Amino acid sequence: MRAKINIYLLEYAINSLFRQKYKSFFIAAVLTAIIFLLTSVFFITNSIKHELQSTVDSLPEIVVQKINGGRHYDIDISVADDILEITGVESAVARVWGYYYFENAGVNFSVVGIDEYEEQYKNSFAFVAKTLDFNKQSMVVGEGVKRIMNNNYYKEYFNFIKPDGTLKRVDIGGVFSGDTELESNDVIVMSKESVREIFNMPEAKATDIVVRVANKDEIATVASKIKLLYPDSRVITKDDLKISYQNIFDYKSGIFLALFVISLFTFFIIIYDKASGLSSEEKREIGVLKAIGWRVDDVLKEKFYEGFIISFFSYLSGVILALLFVYIFKAPLLQNIFTGYSQLKTSFTLPFVFDMQTLALVFFLSVPIYIAATIIPSYRCATLEADEVMR
Amino acid sequence: MIELKNITKIYEVNKNNMVTALNNINLTIKEGELVVLKGASGSGKSTILSLIAAISKPTSGEVIVGTNRASKLPDNFASDFRRDNIGFVFQKYNLIPTLSAKDNIILPLVPLNLDVKEIEDKLEMVLRMFHIEHKANQLVKNLSGGEQQRVAIARANINNPKIILADEPTANLDEKLSLHFIEMLKELKRDGKTIIVATHDPLFFDLDIVDRVVEIHQGVLA
Ligand SMILES: Nc1ncnc2c1ncn2[C@@H]1O[C@H](COP(=O)(O)OP(=O)(O)O)[C@@H](O)[C@H]1O
Ligand SMILES: [Mg+2]
Questions:
Q1: Which residue of A has its CA nearest to B83?
Q2: Ligand 1 pocket residue status of B11, Cβ below 6 Å
Q3: Any idea of the CA torsion for A48, A50, A52, A56, to the nearest 10 degrees?
Q4: CA nearest A2 in B: which residue?
Q5: What ipTM was reported for this prediction?
Q6: Whole-prediction pTM value?
Q7: Pairing mode of beta strands A167-176, A187-191
Q8: Residues A242 and A59 sit within 8 Å (Cβ to Cβ)
């Protein structure tokens, strides 16, 4: 047997697909849809995992809040100085921030205050601190915020409504991009002074205190020391946060799993239907081919070509559609499932995570299985006596 | 030489329904001979052709074609045997209606992975020999019965086999086309092919090119 591709056999296979064009088209369409759905779900899950990992990585090691009656109150700034005294603590920064509800758009912004000379608890804020003009009434906003403000005709500035009902105008000085899309999308950064004004927070108070610990192994010890020092505080460690993030995510992956199973199920129904039998015409054709001298393996080779052409074509179109859908069109509809996760109403862009493993997994879940489903019934038919099959 | 030795063929329709299509048949056909198998419908003519082509296996007995024991060939060897030795013109032609005449004719060569040139040469030869060049690119389903038969004969000859089997070749043809078919038979006979025609058409019974008429009645040779 020669190694070169048998173009006549290939041509016959293509012809054979076109001869049953409605059936072929239907199978290709369904296969494409399933592969598209599977790949989209995998892409989105990967992106979120990536996003989540980065978010968790950028979380502060310890956050201290003041709690009274189970509710969260502003904390005294002096607490930060006391915490700094604890051995092992590298830094303790009082944060001034809050959620500002923008009624026109029905969206919450996270408004974060920073000081020019303070050590920033996030790398991305250090960058913002350099670009932000602290002398002016100015702010740097996340891309999602910028978009929403623009849509509401705030191109150059924004009017915050203070608790007493008066307005505070702040200019949009720049656009902010954080370590992850998820964390920066709904964020507004400005001077601590401005934030205090917007939320009517006294000079001596802060929203919470972020503590950095030099040695990771000491986080738990430091946390319990703070708790001892301030029994009315809630001390949240990175691990606690990680777990709660993880819980939210796992719940979401449950939905994905369901979607995943549904698509697999549909796929196998088609496979089952395909495997359960050939039409009498297909059988007769196999009988004729054998009667004029085709071997069983010639018939199977031809069926392999048919199965490969249709499933590989569907695989490519499904994957390309999924790439477009997730990364270019930002996964409309499926996106809605994630807005719950991010706790924002502003939409965020899924980061592009190219993962060969996902593509390979989808490939092996679709192409070989489909080919096998094409070949098996043909094999059963081709091994019968040609005379029996032809009549 | 084709030899059928003590051939019995029983079809098992179901457990309670066995049909004895051939009952202990012995038949020898020499190389280059043109034999007509004559018999009523259901007498077992097609079964004999199938056994010679190794398309089916006898219940007992032996079929020997040249150096091949056709009745004992494993499946893939049977395929090779058919491809290399047998040109079968089926009663219903067994063409693929949605392929062109040309694509039907080259079908036996498709698995061989031959060069385009080689296939084109062989194709051109049979197209010319059986006068179907002008219809080569038309879909078989759009051809007339006579044209379809010529496509079937061209396909049977594409690999230049030594043996031609024709099952009821004139059953679907009018008299003029039947005479055409006989012209083609003459040509094949001149080429030295061994030919077996299964038919109950009286047209064949006293042709000068026919060497022998073998009669069959309900699975037994007369
Ligand atoms: N595949 C089959 N299954 C069951 N019975 C068959 C089969 N093929 C042929 N027969 C029966 O065998 C007998 C001989 O058939 P056949 O060889 O086709 O006769 P002919 O070609 O002379 O008309 C008939 O009774 C026919 O019904
Ligand atoms: Mg018959």
A1: A293
A2: yes
A3: 180
A4: B113
A5: 0.94
A6: 0.77
A7: unpaired
A8: yes
